[in-house]
Amino acid sequence: MPGGDVKGDIEIHDYRSHARDVDTRRFKDLCRRQSLLTLDDWIYLPIAYLSIREEPEFCKQLILSFIGKFISIDLDAPLNFMEAETVRYARRLLRPFTPMELAKHLYVTDRYARNVLHELVKKDHLAVVGGNLRFRTYQLKNRLDIQWK
Fold it and tell me: DSSP readout, 32-50?
């Protein structure tokens, strides 16, 4: 990754080779391997193959959040404290969120949270993902331009 100071490992685990049919020696080797990666400062993210098949949207958000740990976003416009905290909140949350959830997180009114969200949409940091006439849910804008099928 840029800067070279972070390392990430995403592994897809199927049930058969990582759980059901694993003998004690293989299990020990898998644990040792994960331990060595951790000691070498790798950030390790295991994902079950069944999750990819059954919950692809969750896996997409999980991977985008994982990659987001390594990529700094160039800001076109400076963010104030509330906007920056809202972007951090959106990065931690692996799903769209409502203005009420954000208001509760920031300890502000619903109206103020909506204003913050509208500003972040204008600044191209958040995207509206729910609601046609009235915006109902928001999430972090995908800045990686990854095509998910």
Answer: HHHHHHHHTTEEEEEEEHH
